[in-house]
Design a protein that fits this description.
Elements (H helix, E strand, L loop, with lengths): L8 H26 L10 H56 L5 H24 L1 E2 L2 E2 L3 E4 L4 E3 L16 E6 L2 E6 L5 H10 L6 E4 L5 E4 L8 E2 L4 H7 L7 E4 L1 E6 L8 E6 L8 E3 L2 E3 L9 H54 L3 H28 L9
Antiparallel strand pairs: 1-2, 3-10, 4-8, 5-6, 5-9, 7-8, 11-12, 13-14
Helix pairs in contact: 1-7, 2-3, 2-6
Length: 386
């Protein structure tokens, strides 16, 4: 190797190695200070993309858990309110039973009816004023997609007779069900529609005595054949297929991917003394009173049905609470597993990084020493000039 003073190759090599050691030491210190193996895209581009995607999943799932928790809270408020309504109705049963007996005087029945009136008013107050997060819980909306149809004529009763020969035709989902009356009652028509599985429509009389048809499958094409004039005389025209229906609370759950998004829909429904609905049964106690034994007996039947309706609605709410609880447990498990997967990609191995720091510190010190020695090597050329 010739002696040269133009370039100190050993020094350049020492400088280059010292630079690489310094960069490695700096990266190790970044990882130790942040706890993350990936501090920039240059550290692991593919790993960063996967880890960020997993973090987005965890973030969306965490919010979904909060959504489910809020939904559970709203349902629990509704259940608690309905529990108080049941207590009020049980008291109404006591009052109606007491008023129905022949030993009560007129003034005593008046006193019983006064309390019964206050019970009905309190049911209305609970229905109107129970809120969650500033929003009323027992609300209704208008169904405009023909999934519900209310007859224009009110005042029909289940015991009313149908005109012999009436043909009542219901269609939904492209399927048709026809009922031809033959000395039958409105109740027979309602039961026949509810028993038919071909169309799958449901029927009931609402609190005003109007025939209401619903499509539980929400196919959007529920219709009634209005060509039979006699049938329309019994029930009124279905020219305006719009009905007041219970609005649903939609709990949105997702892990940020559209394919995994889902909604748990819970219908709480309206609540008042004139609307205590469940399934195909609606009870209206707004006009009932306890001023006579006959009236009290009639009210007692309705009150018992109202208790059953409220209990049925509470059962549905309880099932929805259990469903949201299950969904929350599943999402919490997903959060745990996805966080573990992200940690495996993003997190720094502290033991390994400490070992690397020790190694690079030593290499840095030896590199500086080697650079100093390389710079001294060319001093030997001066001995030839002496």
């Amino acid at each position: 190797m010739p002696l040269s003073i133009l370039n100190n190759i050993a020094s350049l090599a020492a400088q280059n190695q010292l630079s690489m050691t310094g960069a490695s030491l700096q990266k190790t210190l970044f990882r130790l200070s942040s706890g993350s193996r990936i501090n920039s895209g240059a550290d692991d581009a593919a790993g960063l993309a996967i880890a960020d995607g997993l973090r987005a999943n965890v973030t969306a799932l965490s919010q979904s858990v909060r959504n489910a928790t809020d939904g559970t809270g709203k349902l629990q408020v509704a259940d608690g309110a309905l529990g108080q309504v049941t207590t009020l109705l049980n008291r109404a049963v006591t009052l109606a039973t007491e008023s129905a007996t022949g030993t009560m005087s007129s003034s005593q029945r008046t006193a019983l009816n006064a309390e019964f009136t206050r019970i009905k008013e309190e049911i209305d107050r609970i229905g109107n004023n129970t809120t969650f997060n500033g929003t009323k819980i027992f609300t209704t909306g208008t169904d405009t997609d023909k999934n519900s149809m209310a007859g224009a004529t009110a005042g029909v009763a289940l015991g009313d007779s149908l005109t012999d020969g009436d043909t009542f035709t219901v269609t939904a989902g492209g399927k048709t069900f026809s009922y031809t009356a033959s000395t039958s009652k409105v109740a027979d028509l309602v039961n026949a529609i509810n028993a038919d599985t071909t169309v799958g429509a449901k029927a009931y009389l609402d609190g005003t005595g109007a025939l209401v048809l619903t499509d539980p499958q929400g196919r959007g094409d529920l219709a009634v054949d209005t060509s039979d004039a006699n049938a329309m005389t019994d029930f009124g025209a279905f020219a305006n297929p719009t009905a007041t229906v219970a609005t649903a609370t939609d709990i949105f759950l997702s892990d940020s991917g559209s394919a995994s998004a889902s909604t748990i829909s819970v219908t709480i429904g309206a609540l008042s003394k004139s609307a205590m609905d469940y399934g195909a049964s609606s009870v209206d106690i707004s006009t009932d009173d306890l001023t006579s034994a006959t009236n009290a007996q009639s009210a007692l039947t309705k009150i018992n049905q109202a208790i059953a309706n409220v209990a049925g609605r509470r059962g549905d709410i309880g099932a929805a609470i259990n469903r949201l609880s299950t969904a929350t447990n599943v999402m919490n498990a997903q959060i745990q597993n996805l966080s573990q997967a992200e940690d495996g990609i993003r997190a720094a191995d502290i033991g390994e990084e400490v070992a690397n720091m020790t190694k690079f510190n030593i290499l840095n010190q030896t590199g500086i020493s080697a650079l100093a020695q390389a710079n001294q090597m060319q001093q030997s050329v001066l001995t030839l000039l002496r």
